[in-house]
């Protein structure tokens, strides 16, 4: 399948294409005859594409690359035809120098040194010269560059007796040459040259003017190269694996099979959060608290302020976990207050730790377990230095804020009674239950509403993923459908729990209204009618879920005087 072209043939990419094609004469040289070997040409074009992909890190389409090369070649010949009459036009073309090697397409001339009188076939033989002393390849190359031609040197041996090495290419490290006696000829070893091997395998000859030099033997063992060879090999494998992964990711955009595999992998990552209270929190926000617990840290004012802030945050999470455990196990009324007091008695009042605290912590999100253990360790270690109850600000202390609000409410009622010269003759039964029941219902409604929103979002994303999967991929579609069913079951279960809480709240309202006489009811209605902001209308939670109304309207079901848990 041909890949969709996701790149543009920029000027650097076209120049690199011309240079890469220049190395492979079978693709462009017509002398003595152009190659018609289809397999060989396909192999050479594949090498060009691979070289461009490694250099520019893009996916190259072979057919598109051939069209681009043909366009460059046609433009070059058009420019050449106009060269005699308009030489400036040819010079202005930005690819003129890169495509100038096409002048040798119909001739057998060498690629360079033509203007300097260089004749690659007229290389003098040095077989009759006896070598006097060995010299390095660099010395031979420097001498050749100075003379700008092949010159007979006494240090050169016969080409048939020496291994070959291209100029500009080095073996596995050039080493020093030991001086030998004048009568002892130097020894040589055969080395592998990938460039020559490639030219031989593709039936090409090296470009004219390539200088061939000899490499003498160095008997010194290269231990460093031998020891570092595994390291270079590992780095090369890692680089290839990274490049392969990037290409696979790009190819997945055009491959339906790989896209289905990606969808299957995503569908298998099913999070089982049933029975756990999810807390959207950063795992590192309690890192300072954990660090103090692990080290013998000296508490200063800054550390105590930080501990006080983190304790307040953990206290709010603990209250949510306590209510989740209360609802999950169906505990009797009044048990929730014991769960809440157990944390305050241990952390603030310095009483022994109740084992029930650990049960509540297990119900919370696993990401905060270490933070709770760190807090308990700090409280036990610095019991004489910490006094968290008095360090908690009133704005962050929910119970102190509730007491203050209750006092304000009592003073307001007494002021109204004095103004109207009336004295209340009734008192609510079970003040503790009347105080804590609205708190329980409010926390319950917020938690269940949040869970319903999360699972609804999960269902929406799963349905979108299901619409992108191929109909023939039955396994992936079956997994996604099962995930939708599980999510729907969880939503129904949470909705059922919410309805039970609504029933309990209605029963609570009926009990409270039954304990008040008719004159008292009329007096209560007349007092509450003066303040329109305190009037609330009972709304069924199930009806709100069906109509998908805002959460702010749903919270009016509960007592407006109860504040949210400090976060």
TrEMBL record:
It comes from the Eukaryota. Residues 477-504 form a coiled coil. Residues 106-188 are annotated as: Disordered. Keywords: Coiled coil. The keyword Coiled coil applies. InterPro entries: MADF-dom. Residues 106-119 have a biased composition (Basic and acidic residues). Residues 16-107 form the MADF domain. Pfam families: MADF_DNA_bdg. Residues 147-158 have a biased composition (Polar residues). Residues 173-182 have a biased composition (Basic residues). This is MADF domain-containing protein. The lineage of its organism: Eukaryota, Metazoa, Ecdysozoa, Nematoda, Chromadorea.
